[in-house]
Specification:
N-methyltransferase activity, methyltransferase, 3 domains, DNA_methylase_N6_adenine_CS, 21 helices, six-stranded mixed beta sheet, Rossmann fold, Transcription Regulator spoIIAA, single chain, ten-stranded mixed beta sheet, transferase
Length: 620
């Protein structure tokens, strides 16, 4: 096919193919007959080893890991996202997104539009306690499998796939569920992005191993201990667990730096100015360090005349020359009587970052505990308890505040009760930011015996969406002086609007219908255009300009024209007048008996260099 005679690919990226292209570009010597020679690549990258050590490698493996990787690499072919304006709030204005669907498929659908654009990911996945919903992903039929496993096509409508401890593959099922999702999530993080993952003792060790593999050991930032309980449970036989963990990884730890916890009065009150230094308030810091550096062991004479040296086994943190420079600049403090051991003056005005570097133990007094979170959510929902163990808003808000900028995208693809959405709105209210959230939640059905079901909430997303509405209204009323984005666009995972070719000879006659229309019969042009836009890399919050059956999408560095109606040979000239970016893609539905028009448009592109520079054509 010519460059502008490409067929539109109704899939997300094939990650193996993309990776192979990058490897071939970096190491052309490992390409043989157009394929990557993995043995040659391993020989190139591996250090020289003795023969008997060549096959001895550190590995963390389990049954199904190979298939989990395969699932992560496979593109999404049979799914799309359908807009649900009825369930949304402020559809036309909001930049927030709520998606109902299997997060594996959703993460794949997000790859083009959100690759390297998410600053912070927070997830609270199933802890694998023996009662959690953990279903087995299928490679060949991801969407049908999703419908079955979530009970959407089951006669009774019940979810029955909790991961019981009696299951012989208890840990492997959980790992196979988590691995591809984390692998896809990494692609979405910005280079200076960070992921926070809540977990408890059941899978903490396994989670850290797969995160080390996916994100890299060097990008591990911390294992935070969250004090989630404030009182012991005396019925416990040995220990009453009072904490959970939050694993924190960076996309690239070498360029990541926390913004710090906002300074409060308590922290600032530690600074004073007893010598009336014109540079402002300061506090003194220990000048000695250990282990000792021999060249930094030297005597210091205090203003009172006393001679002091660093304690045994330690040295001064400054060389003798640097000490003299700081002494001359009035940055060394000997106490109010001039007789104390020298200490370094640290000025509040010279702090490199606005906040305090967080420690790895987060106390419930600072970020809340489980019972407090349950009570606050219950109060928000008019006294009804719909969730047993929601996370505190302040806990997730700290994660958001530590690493996000004012206009960052925050993603949670195990969003549950949507605490993350409320945390983002709260943080924007506090610092005037414009952060956007993307929530993804499996549409698990509520139990028919539950309070939620009796209150007409049939799925978890229905409760969560109502929680966001109420929280947003409450926060906006509290901060009436600023305009907050408390809305959200709802999308639902559905089967693709584009027909899929089936090689089954029994369905040949049915497949011939694709020659008449590439789309499913019950889909609308709005839905078809949205799918094409998503799979072309347009963000979910982009609002198209619509002219009949033709759509014009623009977001960030992507521009796509979706032409589903009639057109003539003037089409490209007309689109060029509407174009807003240097380069755009036009995805055009071939008209019945329109081969001559198509041919003329392709020839026009060849003959007019400017059009060829401005557009690439893809055909439906």
């Amino acid at each position: 096919m010519a460059e502008n005679d490409r067929k539109f690919e109704a899939t997300t990226p094939n990650f193996k193919s993309e990776a192979a292209k990058k490897i071939a570009k970096l190491f052309p010597e490992v390409v043989a007959d157009g394929q990557i020679d993995t043995d040659a690549l391993e020989e190139l990258l591996s250090p020289d080893l003795e023969d008997e050590e060549a096959n001895e490698k550190y590995k963390f493996t389990w049954r199904g890991k190979h298939n989990a990787k395969r699932i992560a690499d496979a593109p999404a072919r049979t799914t799309t996202l359908i807009a649900d304006k009825k369930s949304s709030k402020d559809w036309d204005a909001t930049k927030n997104v709520y998606i109902e669907g299997d997060n594996l498929e959703v993460l794949k659908l997000m790859q083009k539009a959100y690759s390297e654009k998410v600053k912070v990911i927070y997830i609270d996945p199933p802890y694998n306690t023996g009662h959690d919903f953990v279903y087995k992903d299928k490679y060949h039929d991801p969407y049908d499998n999703y419908l079955r496993e979530t009970g959407q096509i089951d006669a009774e409508g019940n979810v029955t796939t909790t991961n019981r401890e009696s299951n012989g593959r208890f840990h492997t099922d959980w790992l196979n569920m988590m691995y591809p999702r984390l692998k896809l999530a990494r692609n979405l993080l910005m280079d200076d992005g960070v992921i926070f993952i809540s977990i408890d003792d059941n899978e903490d060790a396994n989670l850290k191993k797969i995160c080390d593999e996916i994100f890299g050991e060097n990008n591990f930032l911390a294992q935070v201990v969250w004090e989630r309980a404030y009182a012991p449970i005396n019925l416990k036989k040995n220990f009453s667990e009072s904490h959970d963990y939050i694993l924190v990884y960076a996309k690239d730890a070498s360029i990541v730096e926390t913004r710090g916890i906002p300074r409060g009065d308590e922290a600032d009150n530690r600074y004073s100015n007893p010598d009336n230094d014109p540079r402002g308030v300061w506090q003194s810091d220990n000048l000695s360090v250990g282990p000792a550096i021999e060249s930094n062991i030297y005597p210091v004479t205090t203003p009172s005349g006393r001679v002091v040296e660093p304690p045994a086994g330690r040295s001064w943190r400054l060389s003798q020359k640097a000490f003299r420079e700081r002494l001359k600049d009035n940055r060394i403090w000997f106490g109010s009587d001039g007789n104390g051991v020298p200490r370094m003056k640290r000025f509040l005005s010279e702090l490199k970052k606005p906040g305090i570097t967080p420690m790895t133990i987060w106390k419930y007094k600072e970020v809340g505990h489980s019972q407090e979170a349950t009570q606050q959510l219950q109060k928000l929902m008019c006294g009804k308890k719909y969730f047993d163990y929601p996370k505190p808003v302040k806990l997730i808000q700290r994660a958001v505040q530590l690493y996000s900028e004012n206009d960052s995208i925050i993603l949670d693809f195990f969003s549950g009760s949507a605490t993350t959405a409320q945390s983002v709105i709260e943080q924007n209210a506090e610092d005037g930011g414009h952060r956007k959230f993307i929530m993804v939640q499996l549409p698990e059905k509520t139990s028919k015996k539950s309070v939620a079901y009796k209150d007409d909430y049939k799925t978890i997303p229905e409760i969560a969406e109502e929680r966001i509405r109420r929280a947003g209204k409450q926060i906006q009323e509290k901060h009436s002086d600023i305009k907050l984005d408390t809305g959200f666009k709802v999308f639902k995972l559905e089967s693709s609007t584009i027909k899929q070719w089936d090689d089954n000879p029994d369905k040949f006659t049915e497949q011939l219908k694709m020659l008449h229309s590439p789309f499913t019969q019950d889909s609308t042009n709005d839905q078809r255009a949205l799918e094409i836009a998503i799979k072309s890399g347009i963000s979910l919050t982009a609002s198209p300009e619509i002219d009949g059956d033709n759509y014009h999408f623009v977001s960030d560095d992507k521009e796509v024209f979706v032409i589903l109606g009639k057109y003539d040979e003037k089409l490209l000239d007309e689109l060029d007048k509407e174009r807003k970016l240097p380069n755009a893609t036009a995805v055009i539905r071939e008209m019945d008996n329109g081969s001559e028009t198509k041919f003329n448009l392709i020839e026009k592109m060849k003959q007019e260099p400017e059009l060829n520079d401005h557009f690439s054509l893809e055909w439906l």
